[in-house]
Amino acid sequence: MKKLDLYIIKKFLGTYIFSIILIIAIAVVFDINENLDKFLSKNAPMKAIFLDYYANFIPFFVNMFSPLFTFISVIFFTSKLADNSEIIAILSSGVSFKRLMRPYMISALIIAIANFYLSSYVIPVGNKGMIEFQNTYVKNKKKEYATNIQMQVDSGVIAYIERYDNPVKTGYRFSLEKFDGKQLKSRMTAQIARYDTAYKWTLSDYLIRDFNGMKEEITKGSTLDTIIAIEPQDFLISYGDEKQMTTPVLRAYIDKQKKRGMGNIQDFEIEYERRFAMTMASFILTIIGASVSARKIKGGMGLNIGIGLGLSFGYILFMTVTSSFAVSGQTSPRVAVWIPNIVFSFIALYLYRKAPN
Question: What structural domains and CATH numbers belong to the chain?
Answer without folding.
Answer: 3-139+265-354 (no CATH), 145-232 (2.30.30)
